[in-house]
Amino acid sequence: MAGDPIWRISQQDLDKLMTTLDVTFVRLSECALAANAHLAVARAAASTIHYCLRGAGFILLDDETPIRLTPHTLVIIPPGRAMTITATERPTTLRNTRKHNNDGFTAGSSQRHTVGDGEPTLVLACGSFRANYGPALDLFASLAMPIVERFDVHDQLDQVMAYAMAELAAQDVGGGPMSAALLKLVLLALLRRCLVSTNAWVERFSILSDPPIARAFAEMASRPSEPHTVQSLSHAVGLSRSAFMARFSAAFGESPMSLLRRVRMRHAADLLAANALSIDQVALSAGYQSRSSFTRTFRRYYGSDPSEYRARAQRTASSSAAPAEDAIEESAAA
Q: What are the start and end residues of every segment in region (Disordered) (predicted)?
C-alpha cells in the first residue's frame, strides 16, 4: 500500500552487476521446526539467506515488523543481526519471543538442524554467504534492512537451494564451487526483480550509479527518525552543499528534503499496516515530534488519517490471510 520504490537501478547497471557478480563463500543448512517451535539464530559476520521450502512461520528481528514466511519466500538478513525463526501461524502469538542475544544456531554450521517435537511444519534453507560486485564490493554487507521477496513454484528456486545443500553435504570434489554457482543462480533471480519488484529493497542496488548520493539516500531510508538536514547529509557523504544538492536532484528529480518526507511517510505507512506501534510511536519513528504535524503530512500523501489507513490495511490483511492459510494447508496435505 505504500507504493513503488522511490529509486530503481537502471537496466544497464543491473546487467553490469549481474555479469560481474561472484559468490565467494556459502554455507547452508536445512532447518526444520515443529509446530510452535522457535529457533534462535546467532549473529553472523556475513549476510545470511533464508528460503522457505515449505510451511509457514515468521522471522523476528528486534524493533522490526515480523517477516512472514510462506513457501518460496526469500529473505536476506544484514550481517551482525540476531533473529528468531518461529513456526507459528499468527504474529499475535510472538510478543514474548522478540529478545535476541549472541547465542543460538549458526546458519550453515550443520547439514540439518531440527527444533521441537513432531513433524516439521516449517522447513527452510538457511545459511551465510558473501557475494561481491567487482573485486571488493560486498553487495549485501551494508544492508540497512532485510531483503524480502516472494517467488513461486515456477521459479524453481527451492530445487536450486536443495541442490546446493546436497552439494555441500556430499563433500565431493568441487562441492564448494558448485554450491556457490547454485547460490549465484538464486541471487541472479533476486536481482532480476530489481526492475519490477514493488519492495523497497531494490533501492539498495542503485549504489552503482552515484555512490555518495546512494549513501545519503541509505541514511535517510535506514534512519528516518533522525533530524536529517541538507547540511548533515552532504557532510556525511563528503560533498559540498551545492554539489550534493545538484547531484541529488539529478538522481531523484527532487530535493533531499522532499524525498525525505516521502521516505518518512512510506516508513510510517509500513508501521501502521503492521499494527505494532501506537500512532504517537509511529510519528516519532518517522521523525515527527508532533502528532498533529505528522497527521497533516500523512493525510497529504495518503489521503486519509493514520488511524483510517491502519484500519483499512488491517481489513485488507484479514481478507487475504484466510485464503493464503487454506492454500498452505492444502499444499501440506498434498
A: 308-334
The C-alpha cell at 108 is 550453515
The model's pTM: 0.71
Query: Could you please report the per-residue DSSP string of 192-255?
Result: HGGGT--SGGGGGGGGGT-HHHHHHHHHHHH-TTS---HHHHHHHTT--HHHHHHHHHHHHSS-
CATH of the domain at 117: 2.60.120.280
Residue 75, beta-bridge partner list: 50, 148
Specify the CATH number for the domain of residue 268: 1.10.10.60
Smallest Cα–Cα separation from 130: which of 184, 75, 170?
184
Q: Count CB-CB contacts under 10 A for residue 76.
A: 23
For the record, the C-alpha cell of 47 comes out as 549476510
Give the whole-angstrom CA distance, residue 233 versus residue 167: 46
The answer to whether position 334 is within a domain reads no
CA 10 to chain CA centroid, Å, is 21
Measure Cα distances from 72 to 39, 52, 77, 153, 197 in Å.
19, 5, 16, 7, 15
Number of structural domains in the chain: 2
pLDDT of 136 > 60? The answer is: no
Residue 107: domain span: 11-203
Residue 328, domain member (yes or no)? no
Residue type for position 322: A
* 42-100 confidence digits (pLDDT tens): 999 999 999 999 999 999 987 778 999 999 999 999 999 989 999 998 765 454 454 44
Q: Is residue 168 part of a domain?
A: yes
Residues 47 and 193 in one domain: yes
* CA-to-CA separations, 210 to 234, 237, 257, in angstroms, rounded: 14, 11, 18
Annotate 29-56 with DSSP letters as a single string.
EEEEEETT-EEEE---SSEEEEEEEEE-
